[in-house]
Amino acid sequence: MSLERVPFELSKEYLDLVLRAVEQRDAGFIRDTMEGVNPADISALLDEVETDEARYVLDVLNNEVGAEVIEELEEDTRKEFLEELEPQEIAQYIVEMESDDAVDIINDLPVKTREEVIAAIDDPESAAHIQELMRYDEDCAGGLMAKEMIVANINWTVIQTIDEIRRQVENVEKIYSVYVVDDKNKLQGKVSVKKIILSRDNTRILDIYDSDIIHVETYMDEEEVADIMRKYDLDAVPVVNLQGKLVGRITIDDIVDVITEQAEEERALMSGISGDVEEDDSIWAISKARLPWLLIGLVGGTLGAWAIGFFEGSLERNAALAFFIPLVMATGGNVGIQSSTLVVQSLANRSAFEDSISKRIGRMFLVAIFTGVVLAIISFLIVFLWKDDQTLGTVVAVSLVCVVMLASFMGTATPLALDKLGINPALASGPFITTTNDILGIIVYLAIANLLLP
Amino acid sequence: MSLERVPFELSKEYLDLVLRAVEQRDAGFIRDTMEGVNPADISALLDEVETDEARYVLDVLNNEVGAEVIEELEEDTRKEFLEELEPQEIAQYIVEMESDDAVDIINDLPVKTREEVIAAIDDPESAAHIQELMRYDEDCAGGLMAKEMIVANINWTVIQTIDEIRRQVENVEKIYSVYVVDDKNKLQGKVSVKKIILSRDNTRILDIYDSDIIHVETYMDEEEVADIMRKYDLDAVPVVNLQGKLVGRITIDDIVDVITEQAEEERALMSGISGDVEEDDSIWAISKARLPWLLIGLVGGTLGAWAIGFFEGSLERNAALAFFIPLVMATGGNVGIQSSTLVVQSLANRSAFEDSISKRIGRMFLVAIFTGVVLAIISFLIVFLWKDDQTLGTVVAVSLVCVVMLASFMGTATPLALDKLGINPALASGPFITTTNDILGIIVYLAIANLLLP
Asked: What ipTM did this prediction achieve?
């Protein structure tokens, strides 16, 4: 028995103590200080150490805790760590995980290792579950679901159901609801654990179950599943196959991850960062993620330069014309991003009663006219008061109205089109739309100048 | 008994049928077709109808379903709807809600109505709970928590705890865990419902409870609570006050809302939309949300024009200089957004082992030099091959290196500074950073041209 538990705090000091203990092979210190600590905290600690140090710590802990720690490691750390392990060792951790987490981890392994790991799993039911789940695409309901759940036959009694819970107690970490099926394993409904506690032992499930149950199908897209769980405030949702048979369940923690990943993906698209990169990655990784859109921006800038070159004559006649290129360009860029963001947002909160595309374009058009005219009046006043040049003021003002309308149209139509093509519409809120609008803005501005200026 | 339930589908056709039923005051149709339908679907339907039509539908349904429907309505629709109701009517719905949802809705009412509604609540316990929760700021743990939960004294037996569950069954929709407290109501731990079912009636809670429990404090910021629940995969977390006494619990559905709102807020900041506006809002509301940043952009553009005007002489000597203003500007904008997004992302995923600010700035610096040089070489080649002008090529190339470094610095330092000031750092990923970088880019480019060109 431990006399007094060392209070745990995730700190640089504790990290140093752990590293020293690893060096001195002091398993006792690690075991004592990490007892009862949440695995997610141990993972955060191991994210900071070398692979062989992490391995020593995990060897000291039991496999059950170790499995949870591995699940919570950062993807890069985990990959490096698992590369060091033998398939048999990985299999020992895998059997301790819920099937959906196990599959996520196996899918990240090299193909050859995957098979070796599955072959090394000594629990045939686990292995069968994992092989079943591996058939599904990672981004659909089948790829999110776990096999662990409590299922009761509609003809059972409460006491039979409690026996089933007892039998499954090791496997199912959180019960949420007990799912009710018929003899053919078709989903009929659910019954809450609360109701089971409060019913007499010989009550039949048939008499207490709730037949109004929301389910999803294996092939459903993960974002659709997230929308459904969010809309109906579900903690867990049963998954059925095409025959209506219950094949698994998805829990809210997986959906929280889906929502978080969605937000991160969108953020990356909006800012022109390609790939999954973080601020503390290597300089080469960050540069590689940033260069593609910067190069596209460079090409866009060159096209812009070419467009300006086309109007060189006008610029030589009136150098002040060049002054307002940035103003027109920036306004086009801002309007484009705003428009596309509003569309992306409404695509993210889809309802059954969507406005038609023509209604959307119509409303966009009215907003564009209104904001365009406001901006035009103000810019006319700025140019007129500063340069005392009514014609130049008119050129800037008219250009702004046109550019705002064009940018609004591009910003509204592009995400709608991308969405129809099955591409993430957030792509249209990033450098893509800015670059396009920059070039269009320059052309519109200089063309109008060419028409109106002497 | 209903013979055959009309299958429910959220469609325009069904909406029309409901509207006709409302017109003909056909309560039977509404009651029959909506029986067993999830309240969230009824809300989606009522979001599309007029207030008096929604009111008729809700009058037909019972208050329990009505309360859930009202909770799930869109904010605007709900506000309009509640304005039509008498305080007594609102109170009848409020008593059916969990205390946290009740408080959210009461807080949206005019101050005078709030008091009348609370006075009209006929259940003194409900009213006391609501008044207690109203004391907390909406954005902290106290403002998210509900009073509904199952609490067991550590000295109770399992059967006493089941009695308590039975007593509370009406109030607590989802149990998750039973929280264990001592005689002074101090939080001691938790025990799962699963464990309660599987233990003998006379087992003491003391012998089966789990003392490793993660809790939050009432004053904790909602985003911190979201981080904790996400990190530890919690479905519910108990909230304690400064004395360590258990005062409420926060459930995962509220956290899903917090995460979604965070993403929406960030999206709005990144795209320069102020306020909470949606694509299907009125033209005036959308314009009002969009104009502020467009006007700031206009001011930025005017400053840019002024900066260019400052170098009018250089531009008159070499008109081709103007060609590359957009290229330099756009690159600065893109780099700034990328840098700030990486920082915002790492601020969103804070860990206990943060890199120091100097290390961050250092890494940013190296990435900027590397990407800047790549862009500089390519742009030099473009300018040289197109314009056959080595000096202009050098000006563009040197400017790009400087602008990339400057924009990286601004993009990294601004969100860090905003974060220190307690402002949402995502503000630095939007038009704010673009506008600043536009102006800086123009000045750097033209100043370098002035130095290097004859």
From this structure: 0.84
